[in-house]
Write a structure and sequence with these properties.
Length: 466
């Protein structure tokens, strides 16, 4: 049992290293859960641990990947298969290079298993084909395993047409039945691909050690990916997280306001009430609390690689629009234009971004970032945008192509505002290097490093005081 507890602690540490928060109380809950479930029922064990430590659905993929590494379904070579058509795999594992696996027979068997839809059989088949097709000789005494070698030879996606024909069995094409069948086949193919990848990870973990593989087996959580390094898939996932993130922030802010509903001490009422207790102020009285809801003005650079960061922050600001009296958004590349009209609460985000890119006047000269001209244009065209109730938010990396900074105008805007912050998605170590004008702007405005969604969430809570 002690070995299993050590395994559990290593697994929970791996979750922390991957970015999930696992408290000591949750570790104790997970340990108690191990005594309440059948440890031989692997899926039951998986769900018990997930119920103890997971807080967000988006973290489930990371959890499952690490669970499969630390608590594998099998060890070593899987048992000899009872399926017809896998004899060739056994020959290949034995080292008979002259008799390569019969790929056509394996594809036929895969087709039959996909039609059956039996996950247990499909998982056993995945283990077998990885053993026969996924192995490659590496350094002496060490083997490499590759999922792409298996998937390239079996090409499960090319079985779509024959699988649809078999599932429809003469039914009319193009209707609801075909859509359901296509979705079913797509899901089963995806499951098989994930099974192959999981089996490859298991093999690598056995050969290299689970601790070493844990460092590279999982992708960073979407909220921890740097905006400037985010891929298209990462940004799509971040956009899906905008409204859940906004709900969490709004809930926390509401709770903070509820707890802090008492205003300043009302000295006169407190002294008057103390007369009834001999001058001892047993009960203090406070003025009514008036929660502050600021106006928000967002001025963002939408050029090049910082565009994804600006778009995500704009969407979050509008998802939180109920927490502000008013929200106005301005975008720039080398000149500035108001884009408030494109972002409306509940509107289609993709359409808003597309319209902003095509309809907003963001280019004045050459389409390269010009912060100085953009700030000057903003101050000249929208003199009423920033006032004493305004929180001014500037988004960008401050890389100005060695042009004039407009720092004097920015100082005037900062002085007129209630709060002013510059969110920079670049690591602070890169500030003031090359064509970066962060040194000049940091003398004028509070510059904050916001490289990922976690840091952005922390900043938004700071921006919205009780």
């Amino acid at each position: 049992m002690s070995g299993l507890l050590e395994r559990e602690i290593g697994f929970l540490d791996a979750l922390r290293s991957a970015g999930l928060t696992v408290s000591l109380a949750e570790v104790l809950d997970a340990t108690r859960a191990m005594g309440a479930v059948d440890l031989m029922a692997r899926e039951e064990f998986r769900h018990a641990l997930a119920a103890c430590v997971l807080k967000r659905p988006a973290h489930r993929t990371t959890f499952d990947t690490l669970f499969d590494l630390w608590f594998p379904a099998a060890t070593g070579d899987s048992l000899a298969s009872s399926y017809d058509g896998l004899d060739e795999l056994g020959d290949a594992e034995a080292g008979d290079e002259a008799s390569p696996p019969d790929t056509a027979a394996l594809r036929d068997l895969l087709r039959r298993l996909l039609l059956e839809g039996d996950e247990d059989k499909l998982r056993r088949f995945a283990r077998e084909v990885v053993s026969g097709l996924g192995r490659a000789d590496g350094q002496p005494g060490r083997q490499n395993w590759f999922s792409y070698r298996v998937l390239r030879q079996l090409s499960p996606e090319t079985l779509m047409a024959s699988l649809l024909e078999a599932l429809l069995a003469g039914q009319e094409r193009g209707g609801l039945a075909e859509r359901v069948a296509r979705q079913t086949v797509t899901e089963r193919i995806r499951q098989f691909q994930e099974m192959v990848e999981s089996e490859v990870r298991r093999r690598l973990a056995e050969d290299r050690g689970v601790e070493q593989l844990t460092k590279t087996a999982v992708h960073p959580l979407a909220e921890q990916v740097d905006f400037l390094r985010a891929s298209r898939d990462d940004m799509a996932e971040l956009r899906r997280q905008v409204f859940p993130l906004a709900r969490r922030l709004a809930t926390r802010l509401t709770a903070r306001r509820r707890l802090g509903r008492s205003g300043r001490l009302d000295f006169r009422r407190t002294v008057r009430a103390s007369l009834g207790t001999g001058g001892v102020p047993l009960v203090t009285h406070h003025r009514p609390h008036k929660p502050h809801k600021p106006e928000l003005v967002v001025l963002c650079d939408v050029s090049g690689s910082v565009a994804g960061f600006a778009h995500f922050t704009l969407m979050l600001a509008y998802a939180l629009s109920e927490q502000f009296t008013k929200v106005r958004a301005f975008a720039f590349i080398d000149t500035c234009d108001e884009v408030t009209r494109f972002f409306t609460p509940g509107g289609d985000v993709a359409e808003a971004l597309s319209r902003m890119s095509s309809e907003a006047q963001l280019v004045w000269f050459d389409g390269h970032s010009d912060y100085g001209h953009s700030i000057e244009t903003f101050a000249e065209r929208y003199p009423d945008a920033v006032g004493p109730r305004t929180s001014l938010l500037i988004l960008g990396d401050a890389r100005n192509n060695y042009r004039a900074t407009g720092a004097h105008t920015l100082r005037q805007l900062v002085q007129r505002s209630r709060h002013a912050y510059w969110l920079n998605p670049e690591p602070a170590a890169y500030w003031a290097s090359g064509d970066s004008a962060t040194a000049q702007y940091a003398d004028v405005i509070d510059m904050v490093e916001v490289r990922n969604a976690v840091q952005l969430e922390e900043f938004v809570q700071r921006l919205l005081p009780v």
